[in-house]
């Protein structure tokens, strides 16, 4: 039986593939050389396209950075939400998050380099601070909802502080812990972020359960 001929991609599908390859190439190069040290031509070349193909999909490098920030946030949120979707217990969620962090640890240098490069680029280019803030707010919103649900499951009707503030603490702590993990991997576990969040939740649940 002869194999079926491949379906011809639509123009929009072809354009999306081009954008995906440009974004993937940019992420690699930004982690290796920094955003400011990566010209548009190198991004296009790494992706296998011409300079014209880049400008056919993005207005400029900052436009690409905005898209990259959004996609990274959405991808990470989907991964974490999928881990919690069918978990039988919070302990199972934590086990899955620990496994996810162990897997991320294998690529932590490039992952964290890219995150910090995008942050630095946004600080140097004020027009990108809004998109970066939106990215952080999306992540903090998901964390805050998870904290609220877990404290409620533990019987804490009134959290010790606004869950949004607790989420900000947990989210900010992640960056600092990952930097320390990268610097001293022999001393700090790949699961350090999950361990810290579990400790915080235990503390917040105890505070919320304390009268007054």
Walk me through what this model shows.
- The model has no long low-confidence stretch (mean pLDDT 89).
- The protein starts with 10 loop residues before the first helix and ends with a helix.
- It is built from 9 helices and no strands.
- 75% of the residues lie in helices and 0% in strands.
- The protein is elongated.
- The protein has 2 domains: 12-58, Homeodomain-like (Arc Repressor Mutant, subunit A); 62-209, Tetracycline Repressor, domain 2.
- Helix 1 packs across helix 2 (40-47) and helix 5 (90-105) packs antiparallel against helix 9.
Which helices and strands appear, and what pairs or packs with what?
Layout: H1 11-33, H2 40-47, H3 51-55, H4 61-85, H5 90-105, H6 108-124, H7 129-153, H8 163-183, H9 192-209
- Which fold name is given in CATH as the topology of the largest domain? Tetracycline Repressor, domain 2
Number of DSSP helical runs: 9
Identify the overall geometry.
Answer: elongated
Helix content: over 70%
What oligomeric state best describes the polypeptide chains here?
single chain
What would CATH call the architecture of the largest domain? Orthogonal Bundle
Which runs of at least 5 residues are low in confidence (pLDDT < 50)? none
What sequence of helices (H) and strands (E) makes up the elements?
HHHHHHHHH
Q: What is the residue-mean pLDDT, rounded to a whole number?
A: 89
Provide the CATH superfamily of the largest domain. Tetracycline Repressor, domain 2
The fraction of residues in strands falls at under 5%
The N- and C-terminal alpha carbons lie at a distance of 75 Å
Radius of gyration: 21 Å
